[in-house]
Amino acid sequence: MAKCAICEKGAHFGIAVSHSHRRTNKKWNSNVKSVRVNVNGAAKKMYVCTSCLRSGLVERA
């Protein structure tokens, strides 16, 4: 899974606990998209999470 180029957000690991309290390993993937962004006036493809896109930290090309 890719990491966000802005905030370094990636996959999170932990233990999922069911209603009967059985514990299994779980991986939560972050919502990371491959988008074209403007970097120093040139367009470049980067992996950016949707929270960085919504907050305006990157400018789409």
UniProtKB/TrEMBL annotation:
SUPFAM superfamilies: L28p-like (SSF143800). Keywords: Ribonucleoprotein, Ribosomal protein. The keyword Ribonucleoprotein applies. It comes from the Bacteria. One of its GO terms (cellular component) is ribosome. Gene3D superfamilies: Ribosomal protein L28/L24. Belongs to the bacterial ribosomal protein bL28 family. This is Large ribosomal subunit protein bL28. The lineage of its organism: Bacteria, Bacillati, Bacillota, Clostridia, Lachnospirales.
